[in-house]
Design goal:
Blueprint: H1 3-19, H2 25-44, H3 55-64, H4 77-96
Helix pairs in contact: 1-2, 2-3, 2-4, 3-4
Length: 97
Amino acid sequence: MALETLAADHVRRAWSAAYRRDHDYKSAYDHAVLAVEAVVVAAAIPDAAPNRRTLGGANAHIRNIRDRWTVNGIDGSSGVLLANLELLWNNHRRDCG
């Protein structure tokens, strides 16, 4: 499945789980994380081993080369990006474990 299709599918599932009559917020959050993971992993670590192709693996990679990352060319933006990705990952892990 193409990256855009995979991410879009997870967003659709997240939205559906959150807003259907018998909502399932855990499923909604899980699919939201998977949507972000699909995009971030492809951008940050496209050639990583399969067991490292996770949001946690992408976070570690970005953390290690933070000075080479920017968002829209804004200096210092990698820290904001990383903080948001780590917040998403850490809350997801806490919910899973």
